[in-house]
Amino acid sequence: DVLNLQVYYPWEFRSSSPCRTVVFPLMTSGFTYWVIKCLQQLDIWSSCINSYTLLVSPRLLFTIFSFILDYSVYLLAPFWEADPWKALILLAGSYVTLVFYTRTFTNTLEGLLFALLMVLVSSGRSDGSLAEPTKSHLIGIITVAGFFNRPTFLAFALMPLLYWMGLNINSQKSIKTVINHFLKLIPYACFTAIFFITVDTLYFTSVGLDNLYSVKKNSLFDIIAQINQKIIVTPLNFLRYNLNPHNLAQHGSHPRITHFLVNGIMLFGILHVLAISNGFKMLKKCIYQLPQVKSYYRGSSRILVHSEGNPILLLFYLVPLAFLSLFSHQEPRFLIPLILPLVLFSASQNRTMKWKPVIIIFNVLGALLFGCLHQGGLIPCLFHLEQVMHSPELSNHPGHYVLLFAHTYMPPRSLLNIKKGDTHIEVIDMAGSEEETLCQTVGQRTNNFTCNDCHFFVIVPGTVRATITKCGVSFKNETLIFPHLSMEDPPQISSLFSENWRSQLGLYILQLDR
């Protein structure tokens, strides 16, 4: 929208029933693209709009934002009686921080908002006494903003909000004061919700920034009329869609214990195992000490914090994990906000450091797998194709290009730097199509090529290259992008020890011969 480029609008952002707010994309990636656009228009950097800057500029902003996590850990560690430097090392050394928190995921924003919420509810003085809980307005704003970013934020916010209410009760000794603090939260929460609803409604009913700008130029009454036509509340659409089991099944159904047994270990390794182990120990201890619960809660709220293993901090990790496990669609990235309570909890335990070699090896392997190998050739492939299609030699006589992607993740079309209305470049995403369907499409497209300036590229992983050769087409040119690992079409272990191991861990750009 900002740079007037051709993109693929996923179903969540389609105007019929949008499930994602446009506010955060506009504030993050949109802001960086606006800066790039200004640099070009002011003739400061005339060639700044290319695939590299389109990728790196929003990632650079998210990388800067990721230091909110570091600062949050630095502030929270003393309050939760964790070693600040151990917690910071666990955070900075985690491949989750290095890979996920430097990329433009809504889950990344969810993690940053969760960190800010934990800082607000854990406000305390250096002497250990409780600070005056006067940050109700900020808590309300962050909670609602997190809900509009991803409605699952409520699962993460539940324990911090309950803990904040508990601090108010213990420090004020008056239910009336607690209600007053809660009432202060409501106006700011409502104002934030109205802001998100207004922007989303204007954007999605106008379908794009260009039309949105024209709406803004109209009178206030025109804007109100535009909003009244169709009020869009994206979180409600999100919940309506995801509470339907049939819809979730289209994206993949998983056993309810996937987060506990697979995704948690995949992201956090031994730290997740230790947390779950401590969770069972805490549950066992609570069952044996049920008679003492009444006296346990009559004391200061700091008693729980001083307890062995920080049970409240452990609940900050386990409760969201349990709520997210209620849904049948469970992806690892859904858990990345939990890295903050996990590193704080792990840094408060001495036995965590006994696993130091395991933690190091795990995160090195994780960074290599998810940061380099996993679908690692797709972005360099788009860089290469963008240079081919926009080369200076072809600027005066652009040809017709067909780019067919098969057995890769969905290619981000914006990185091809294609202007809206440009019809000489066509992108076909075949996803994980079967051999027969793939060959049929390739054959039809090849036979339809009649112009001299037509170029047909097929992009497939090395493990699928043999399938293309069976389609009865010849190649004019081929380029291998290394490394690239497709977990949907993994190479056989034996092939990794053969002479063509690079091709098995690569992505091919095959230019078909007419």
From TrEMBL:
The keyword Transmembrane helix applies. Belongs to the glycosyltransferase 22 family. PIGZ subfamily. Pathway: Glycolipid biosynthesis; glycosylphosphatidylinositol-anchor biosynthesis. GO terms for biological process: GPI anchor biosynthetic process. InterPro entries: GPI_mannosylTrfase (IPR005599). This is Mannosyltransferase. It is found in: Endoplasmic reticulum membrane. One of its GO terms (cellular component) is endoplasmic reticulum membrane. Keywords: Endoplasmic reticulum, Glycosyltransferase, GPI-anchor biosynthesis, Membrane, Transferase, Transmembrane, Transmembrane helix. It is a multi-pass membrane protein. The chain crosses the membrane at residues 60-79, 85-102, 138-164, 185-204, 260-283, 360-385. Its EC number is 2.4.1.-. GO terms for molecular function: alpha-1,2-mannosyltransferase activity.
